[in-house]
Amino acid sequence: MASKQAEQLFDFDISKYMGEFKVPGVDVETLVGSQRKNIEALTQANKLAYDGLQAVLKRQVEILRQTMDEVAVVSKDIAEPGNPQDKAAKQAELAKDAFERSLSNMRELAEMIAKANNEAFELLNKRFTQNLDEMRDVFVKAAKK
């Protein structure tokens, strides 16, 4: 239902309606085209952000599975009989490894999020710059008339 409404919104041709309201020095087609490009850029930026979020969530699930597998192995090793000093040393080593892996995983996830944010920001920044150029051209063209 929502996608049908979105399609109807994008199919709406405002230039047909604005064509009747002729304002001197205003090129309705250019304005409409510029706004259409803005909407397309926002849509692409949202897709980049969404894809980035999906990648982060997928990686978090992978990390969770890996962690659960490691916990199962470690639990089995700890439950086996053995020298208490050796077990304590092994537990300390396992805790150190787990901590280092956690830091590495957090860094990886933070980098993934930053990359997705940067891609979306760059796309929007590029469109903003294009929009300023388009507006400048409209004003220059209007001043010449």
TrEMBL record:
Keywords of this entry: Coiled coil
Coiled coil segments of this chain: 89-126
Protein's name in the database: Phasin family protein
Presence of the UniProt keyword Coiled coil in the record: yes
Highest taxon, organism lineage: Bacteria
All copies of domain Phasin, residue ranges: 31-128
Pfam families to which the protein is assigned, alphabetical: Phasin_2
KW Coiled coil (keyword) present: yes
